[in-house]
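Field log, afternoon session.

UNIT: design team B
ACTIVITY: writing a sequence onto a fixed backbone
BACKBONE:
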């Protein structure tokens, strides 16, 4: 959830950030800055945007957007270090209740400074979660733009009861545990091992806007990555489908690994955000229509626009065979050449596995890749509760193009390392050398766009 670094040459109209400290009602001081546009403010005061950084980041990360994009467009901005980050006091709460209270108090402070309530919010990753939680709690933003973030933190971190333990361990290291809220520390051990997700599920459920989405009427611009193994496309699509107010979704090459984050794309989606704030914070530009934009990959400056969720079709292939894998290094590999194409994945794909004779084997991880490419298309995992049966593994919703005639390779194991030594998405492999499981028929149902858009 670390902040993304984007470069965008800004206008000379932007002023330099002014550093300040804002005390919260519990006595904790937050380190912040404001960026004020050059020139004379409108008679009603500048409109404002609150900016929220990613995990392990600081408010200076967000000053780039304030100086290069928002101030030249006539917006004053407020950006602060979250609790447990940067120079702010307090404990890291993962967008918990105290963080929401901070946002409420910062909104009031900013509103009084501006002399008006024309305020929007833009947050990246952890900061996007802060924006969602504040909107769900009733903070009266005129418009919001949550970027590469979650709506369902439970399925983002531990889909189907199996933690993305490699990612979780990486994220946990971005903030020293000495600065964690005790509730998070108590839940972290079970999340890392997937042994007991009770506490982690409770913490995550309390920090996601999923249940409140239908009641959020705030105009929302969703910005999500097409190839992001932390927060996949479904995290944004869920909101797009459920929100009742004005909404648009931009899907591009930005995001967490393995997203390429091309610097040339930043001006495009930042322009989308400024246009969104112009429409709903400044009140210019009229109403918008719900649309989904899919930027092409590799990024070429163009997008394909849909009036709703892009239409897809399902390619279903059987991967027959029977093989037994044992111990930590065990894996089963199946491959297929998909006819037609080129194809571009999008939507909910699954791998259904028939298995038997499981002994000491409590998980199954599936990784799908193009032969010869170390970066997977997608992956998924599930906990096993029986020694024999059928399990359907839901793969992450990733938009990845593969050429006609390319061979797809499916790796099945207890860890994603079976696909490539650098694929540390799912760790926590079965370690008992006596553990074994027999993999039988496998069915891959691959969701792809009806028409590939990338070159």
């Amino acid at each position: 959830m670390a902040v993304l670094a984007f470069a965008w040459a800004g206008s000379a109209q932007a002023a330099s950030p002014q550093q300040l400290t804002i005390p919260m009602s519990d006595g904790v001081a937050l380190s912040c800055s404001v960026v004020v546009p050059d020139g004379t403010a409108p008679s009603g005061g500048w409109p404002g945007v609150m900016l929220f950084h990613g995990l392990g980041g600081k408010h200076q990360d967000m000053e780039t957007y304030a100086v290069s994009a928002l101030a030249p467009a006539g917006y004053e901005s407020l950006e602060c270090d979250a609790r447990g980050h940067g120079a702010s006091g307090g404990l890291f709460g993962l967008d918990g209740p105290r963080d929401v209270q901070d946002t409420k108090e910062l909104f009031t402070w900013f509103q009084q400074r501006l002399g008006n309530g024309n305020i929007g919010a833009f947050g990246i990753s952890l900061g996007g979660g802060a924006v969602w939680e504040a909107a769900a709690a009733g903070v009266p933003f005129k418009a919001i733009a949550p970027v590469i973030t979650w709506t369902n933190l439970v399925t983002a971190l531990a889909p189907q009861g199996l933690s993305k333990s490699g990612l979780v361990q990486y994220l946990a290291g971005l903030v020293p545990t000495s600065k964690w809220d005790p509730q998070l520390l108590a839940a972290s051990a079970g999340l890392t091992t997937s042994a007991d997700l009770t506490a982690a599920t409770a913490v995550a459920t309390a920090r996601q806007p999923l249940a409140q989405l239908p009641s959020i009427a705030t105009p929302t611009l969703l910005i999500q990555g097409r190839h992001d193994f932390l927060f996949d496309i479904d995290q944004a699509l869920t909101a797009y489908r459920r929100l009742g107010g004005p909404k648009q979704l931009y899907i591009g090459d930005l995001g967490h690994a393995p997203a390429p984050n091309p610097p040339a794309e930043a001006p495009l989606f930042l322009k989308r955000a400024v246009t969104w704030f112009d429409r709903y914070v400044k009140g210019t530009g009229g109403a918008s229509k719900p649309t989904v934009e899919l930027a092409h990959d590799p990024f070429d400056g163009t997008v394909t626009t849909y009036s709703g969720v892009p239409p897809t079709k399902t390619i279903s292939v059987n991967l027959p065979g029977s093989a037994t894998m044992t111990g930590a290094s065990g894996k089963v590999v199946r491959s297929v050449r998909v006819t037609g194409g080129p194809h571009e994945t999008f939507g909910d794909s699954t791998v259904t596995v028939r298995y038997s004779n499981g002994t000491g084997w409590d998980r199954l991880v599936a990784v799908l890749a193009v032969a010869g490419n170390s970066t997977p298309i997608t992956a998924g995992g599930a906990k096993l509760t029986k020694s024999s049966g059928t399990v359907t593994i839901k793969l992450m919703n990733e938009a990845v193009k593969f050429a006609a005639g390319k061979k797809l390779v499916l790796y099945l194991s207890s860890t994603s390392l079976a696909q490539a030594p650098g694929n540390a998405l799912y760790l926590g492999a079965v370690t008992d050398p006596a553990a074994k499981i027999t993999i039988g028929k496998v069915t891959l149902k691959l969701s792809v766009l009806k028409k590939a858009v990338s070159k």
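LOG NOTE: The first strand starts at residue 18 and ends at 23.
NEXT ACTIVITY: expression trials, pending approval
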